[in-house]
């Protein structure tokens, strides 16, 4: 009260230990509210009275700010360290993987080596190959160049492309160089994949062959069909699928040897015999042509001959002797 009465900012006396503790707890509470999420704190619990408890230290707090200030205190931090030490002692010992330590050499790079790439093709096996010749005239003594293949997803220089892979060459003190080659399976057999280092000429040679893709099996082609849907001559017809259960099978197709315009139905049935005491049915009449002559009737007259002509099939006129025939 004495400090704040009629004083100006910066003109008050020294704060007491109690005021420093209050100010410190307030700063810790604001800091904890910004950085700590109470929903993820395993020791934070709200009881039935509306207050908050710390399950680790068994302390009671009136509000969330008071609890957060407690978590930054010495008592809570000491209990956390004790709990972590006890859990580490009780936990079973897990075998740790052996990590080999590699001492990375830091050398000054002198530039990229010279190289020559030759494309080749084997006419017998139909395989394509590449021949790499890398020159290392300033290579370190008792060292050999190294090479390895790298996937497109392993590098960070170019965008990913699954159609290609990279072949790397490295030798001290030269920079590591790489070649972009197709991502095709490589033939690793002995005579086709080899590498050689010539210490006299300081040249590293590597040759590789790409495997050829297996030929695709020829798929059977469907039989050629004519415009009206029938198969070509000499090709057996396809079997019809079985009819559904409970239905009659479809009628068989007509034979393919019929002339055009022939009827495709069933043959005409014979008329049934007449009943005793009934008249016989009239004979069938043709659609076009002369009608059949009934039995017991006069035959039809022949067509008249043209005027002044005598049909050659008629016999000469005959009559009684001495009597002239009338014309």
TrEMBL record:
Q: Chief localization class?
A: nucleus
Q: Which residues form the Matrin-type domain?
A: 52-82
Report any Pfam family annotated for this entry.
SF3A2
Q: Which InterPro entries match?
A: Matrin/U1-C_Znf_C2H2, Matrin/U1-like-C_Znf_C2H2, SF3A2, SF3A2_dom, Znf_C2H2_sf, Znf_C2H2_type
The family database entries (Gene3D superfamilies) matched by this protein are listed as: 2.60.40.2690, Classic Zinc Finger
Positions of the UniProt region annotated as Disordered: 1-21, 213-327
| Gene Ontology biological process terms in this record | spliceosomal complex assembly
Location in or out of the cell: Nucleus
Which Gene Ontology molecular-function terms are recorded? nucleic acid binding; zinc ion binding
* Top-level taxon: Eukaryota
Q: GO CC terms for this protein?
A: catalytic step 2 spliceosome; U2 snRNP; U2-type prespliceosome
**What keywords appear on the UniProt entry?**
Metal-binding, mRNA processing, mRNA splicing, Nucleus, Spliceosome, Zinc, Zinc-finger
Instruction: List the biased-composition ranges (Pro residues).
Output: 234-306
State the family named in the UniProt similarity comment for this chain.
Belongs to the SF3A2 family.
Record PANTHER family = SPLICING FACTOR 3A SUBUNIT 2
* Protein name as catalogued: Splicing factor 3A subunit 2
Q: Which organism is it from?
A: Cicer arietinum
Per the UniProt record, the lineage of the source organism begins with:
Eukaryota, Viridiplantae, Streptophyta, Embryophyta, Tracheophyta
